[in-house]
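Hello, quick one for you while I still have it in my head. Could you read through the record and tell me how the tokens relate to the sequence? No rush at all, and the record is pasted right below.
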Amino acid sequence: MAEHELDTLKEQILRLRGNRSFYPEATIVVPVNAQKDLDNIPHLLSDLCRYGGRRRLEIVLVINNYPSENPPQEIESYLRAGLVTLGIPRIEHEGGVAIAARIPGIRIAQSPKILLFDADCRIPNPTALIDWYITKFEDGYDLAYTHVAYTDLPPGISVKARMFVHHASRWLRRNVLGTPTSRGSNYAVRKKLILHLYAEGRIPYDIHVGPTVKAMGGKIAYSGAKELVVLTSGRFFAPGWGVLIEYLIWRMGYYRRILKMKPKKAIPDQ
């Protein structure tokens, strides 16, 4: 990162954080896979720095997956810019590495209100989205999420068909089955709650968070409003009808794999 870019980012982070005599009103935690996300994170940071509301925000990066003897220089650069930055060469995990990479950042967050995004996300309207999330916390919600769409999708009818099935199945689960469809690239959750669930082994993957919070009687908010959409990269989707058939088979097994919940437990005091 060039020196002038570093200085600009530092000014923006200082503006977002505001008066450090007060705790931030929300902490944004982003895991950054050093093997594939270091080129993506500047775009997400640029989006977040366009936030124009009045809330004090903290951003925590968890840069991981790199040789311990050769850490990426971005760790030092982002620290100098005022971002809370953790460098963890290897994330130990039993379930999904994505949620495991979020947990160290959540643990050190100064706010009890946690906003979670992935490094390859884009946020078209950060002011509306962040303010909506914080308002939902203030209204007593334990978990909140908004619509996730895709960018960088490869061309082809088979990919469009997969996207149709994907969004249709999420609508069905959310509106007909009443199952929350929060996903790792975009949701907000109370700090104490997610750390409690993770420590108990109840959320080995991000996709378990919504159903588990619901099973515990938590209060959950969703919005499909266009101004609150988050975009995530679809560059890894491969075209082809064979790939689509494999996806359909996987999707049909979703309910058996995911919806087997453990016995209900109450939401811990926040």
